[in-house]
Every structure is written in C-alpha cells, then in structure tokens.
Design goal:
single chain; 18 helices; three-stranded antiparallel beta sheet; alpha+beta; globular; 14 strands; about 475 residues
Length: about 475
C-alpha cells in the first residue's frame, strides 16, 4: 500500500488477491482514467464503464467468431510463409566474413501483424511490406480507390493522406503516448518528427473511416463486419473500437512473437521439443499449409500454445492491470484474513510479481519451460494440481497467477484471435525450420546469447512492452 499526495495505491503480487480483484463485478472497477490515452477517435470498449461499457462489450464481442478465427489462421499461415521466403533469400552476418540466410525479428513480426489484422480485421489483403504492391505497378494511380486493396498498400499514399496506411499506423501506434500528451496544436507546429506524428494521427482516423465505408459496401468475414453493420453504436464509437482492434492486433502480437522467437532461439532443447510436437500434430495433414483446416489443425497445436503462454508469463506484454475501489471500501481476503482497501484507491495487479513467484511456478520461475503447461504429460507442471485451462490441453496454473489477457468480465475479447495467429506463425516457422541467434561482428555465439538476454531484460513499456533493440536470427531448413 502506498499513500502520497497523488492519492492511495495498492500493488498486488498475490494470485489469491489478484483473482478476487479480477472476478469482482462491482467492487474493483476498471480505472478508465488510465485508458484515456487510447480514446483517440471515440469511446470504445477499453475507455468506458458501467452501462456504456456493457453495451460496447455486447456489440464488439459479436466480431469474434469462428469464421473470423479461420480467416486469421489462413492469413497467418500465408504471411508466415512469406517471412520464411524472405529470410531464406536474405543474408545476415554470421561471422567475420560469412553470411547465412536469416533476418531481423521486429520488422518481420510487425509486418505480419499489420497484414494479418488488415485482412482478418478489416478485409484488406496486403503482401509483406518488402513486396511490390499493386499500387506501385498501376499506371493510372488516380483510379485506385478504397475498394482496392492497393489503396492501403505500404508504398502508396492516396490523395487526401500524408502517409501510407502502413506508415501512418506504425508511426502513430509507436508514439501514441507522445501524441496524446503533447497538445495537437504544438505537434502541428513542431519539428519534422512532430508534424509527421500529427499527420499520422489524422491519417489513421481517416483510414479507419474509409475502412468502415469499404466494409459497408463490400461485406467481409472480418472483425469489422459486425461493427460496421451494427446500428447500436454511433460512427465515432465504431471508429474508436476499430482503432482499438488495430492497436491490440499490432503491438501486442508482434512483441509477443519477438520474445517467443528469441526464447526459442536461445533454448534449442525447447525448440526441438516444439518441433517434435508440431510434427506429431501434423501427421496425416497435407504438405501444403494452404490445405490445413483451422478447426482440425489448430486444436492439435498444444506445443505452440504452451510456448505462447510461457512467453507471456516470462515477458508479459501488459505489465499491470489498473483497477480502482471507487467510492466504497472493498474487502479482500489474504491467507484467511480479511483486509479493507479504502475507497478511491488505485489498485494495480502486477504481472511481473505474479509471473516470477516461486509459489506458483516452482523453484526456477525464471526458466523458460513451456513443457510444464502441457497437461498431456503427467510428469510436468508446477506441483499445484491437474486442472485444465478451459477448452485446451494446457495445465491450469494457480488461478490469478497468469492473466496475460486479463480475467473476469473485463478479459480481452481478442484472446483467441491472438492465439490463433501466433500459433499459425509458430507452426510454419518451427515445423520445418531451425532458428538460431545471429552473432554481430566480433561476437561469439555465447556473447550473442548474452546480448539477446540483455535486450529482452531491458525492454520498456509505454502501453505494451517492447524490445528497444532488434535481434537478428539465422534460419536453417531441417532435413527431416
């Protein structure tokens, strides 16, 4: 508990207490003041409370359907295949005078996340950023309109915009806190960077409106479909929620995959375990990933799900979930005793504190051990029960100890969407390829590993956690 001139704050690192906070419907309220930074184009499911939030939640939840997940699965496989092709054709330093196929994790995962949310979220098909788009090869560029996928390509800036769709989204999401802290008038009159950020903010809002208009004229099986055609939300709230889909679908997914790639490259024994699990899951399936049926293959990717859950445990993308007691004191029970948290107290559930607690994760909580999530292995686990996570073959940790997507009524609507696209990425990469860390010039492999561990440990967070330095990896096709 902390008391200062700024008010009262309670920090929670107990799974027992965290579970009470997450499951409380009316006692511990989401502190929407902390989410005002993402109220950019209109109210949304993150920035509302009470009746307004329930209305928002009811409508936005309709967007997340099995058909949309199937679209995310197919696009995830396609985008991952393109990353593999780029890496296999690319070259990255592997010694003083040697180079080998490979690439950098940040641009690859960011491009995949952008292109996937564009397709499964908004109905726009985009190639990998490095590829030539239809717009760059179209002679009569004036004929390109919002109904054309090329309108949203990375190398095309339509009339009325200052930046391309991809550049505007990347620029604005990367600097959203700065854009919201600095008054807009100052941004517009600032240096080149500030003016570009102001332009990105304008452009993203306009692109969102154009995507809604496009969907209403050309319905698709996407997240946007239910939002665009439901008359229960005013236009600004449709745009506001669409922006939240983009924010969640880009930043958090790309960062999680970056951490997963690094962890698997650093832990070759775990990578071999994942490879074997994928091979077993794909027995009897076509050699062509385009023929892998989402409903048949995805449920079998237990190893991939274990890796994602363990990655999010060691490197939670959201560090804390802010709540408030509101106008009334709230009781919590800790080790059989009842404590009262005063009214108007900010309550922060700390994910790092929960994620590294040996009582929940065993004697070596810092070790990357996704196998412990695998409930198919009776000898794995953390010694705290054999309950399964709902709808999976993953072992349920102590409730409240893992909440990467939050818990309770305010849990993340996009959880399965994110898990599906990340599984698609992992099954493509690690089914037939091996990833290792690419040393920089003058580095030994051991030095390279220590550098990557440092990079991961020095990650920073504004809205979500990201690595401040990119990491290069080498890729090698397996012989079997």
């Amino acid at each position: 508990m902390e008391v200062s001139s700024g008010g009262r704050a309670c920090y929670i690192g107990s799974a027992e207490v965290a579970q009470q906070v997450f499951q409380s419907r009316n006692g511990f309220l989401k502190d929407i003041d902390f989410y005002r930074v993402v109220r950019v184009y209109g109210d949304n499911v993150l920035t509302t409370a009470g009746h307004q939030w329930r209305h928002q939640r009811k409508i936005t939840s309709r967007s997340f359907t099995e058909d949309v997940y199937a679209t995310a699965w197919t696009e995830g496989l396609s985008q991952s295949s393109a990353i593999i092709s780029q890496w296999m054709q690319g070259k990255i330093l592997s010694g003083p005078e040697e180079s080998t196929p490979g690439g950098f994790v940040a641009p690859a995962t960011k491009a995949m996340a952008l292109n996937l949310i564009s397709k499964a979220g908004f109905g726009v098909s985009l190639p990998m950023v490095a590829s030539k788009s239809q717009a760059s090869e179209t002679k009569n560029k004036a004929s390109i309109g919002i109904m054309d996928d090329a309108y949203f390509s990375a190398d095309w800036t339509p009339a009325g915009h200052t930046l391309s769709y991809a550049e505007a989204l990347d620029m604005f999401l990367e600097n959203i806190v700065l854009a919201r802290v600095i008054p807009f008038g100052i941004l517009r009159r600032g240096n080149n960077f500030m003016r570009k950020l102001a332009a990105a903010s304008d452009d993203v809002g306009l692109y969102m409106k154009e995507l809604v208009a496009r969907e209403r004229s050309k319905p698709s099986t996407t997240l946007l479909n239910a939002l665009a055609h439901d008359k229960g939300l005013p236009e600004q709230e449709v745009i506001g929620n669409l922006f939240i889909f983009a924010l969640a679908g880009l930043d958090t997914t790309a960062s999680t995959l970056q951490f997963a790639l690094c962890l698997l490259a650093l832990n070759q024994d775990v990578q071999e375990w994942l490879h074997r699990d994928i091979k077993k899951a794909l027995e009897g399936e076509s050699e062509d990933p385009a023929e892998w049926n989402y409903s048949q293959v995805y449920p079998k990717l237990v190893g991939c799900l274990c890796v994602i859950h363990e990655t999010l445990r060691l490197h939670p993308i959201i560090l804390t979930f802010p709540k408030t007691t509101g106008p009334s004191p709230q009781p919590i029970v800790y080790k059989g005793k009842t404590f009262i948290i005063p009214e108007d107290t900010n309550v922060f559930v700390s994910m790092p504190a929960l994620s590294y607690h040996p009582s929940y994760w065993g004697s070596m909580p810092s070790k990357f051990a996704p196998q412990k999530w695998d409930a198919r292995d009776p000898d794995s686990g953390w010694g705290n029960g054999s309950e399964l996570m709902p709808g999976t073959q993953l072992r349920q940790p102590v409730k409240g100890a893992w909440a990467a997507f939050s818990e309770g009524t305010r849990s993340c609507l996009g959880k399965k969407f994110a898990l599906v696209e990340m599984c698609a990425f992992l099954v493509m990469i690690f089914g037939k390829y091996r990833i290792t860390i690419a040393p920089k010039e003058g580095e030994t492999q051991e030095m390279a590993h220590e550098r990557v561990k440092r990079v991961m440990s020095e990650s920073t967070a504004l809205i979500s956690v990201t690595m401040r330095e990119d990491v290069g990896v080498k890729i090698e096709k397996r012989v079997s």
